[in-house]
Amino acid sequence: MKGPHFWSAGLDPSSREAAPLTRALLTPLSWLYLKGLSRKLARAVPERVSAKVICIGNLTAGGAGKTPVAEAIRERINARDLRAATLSRGHGGREGGPLRVDRARHTFREVGDEPLLLSATGEAWIGRERPAAAEAMVAAGVQVILMDDGHQNPSLGKDFTFVVIDAGAPFGNRHVLPKGPLREPVASGLARADAVILMGEGPVPAEVAASGKPVLRAQLTAAEPAPAGPLVAFAGIGRPQKFFDSLKAAGADVRDEVPFADHHPYTSGDLNLMRDLAARDGARLITTSKDHVRLPAAIRAQTLVFPVRAVFADGAALDAMLASLFNQH
Question: Which residue spans within the chain are E strands per DSSP?
Answer without folding.
Answer: 52-57, 84-88, 99-100, 123-126, 144-148, 160-166, 195-199, 215-222, 230-235, 253-259, 284-287, 303-305, 308-312
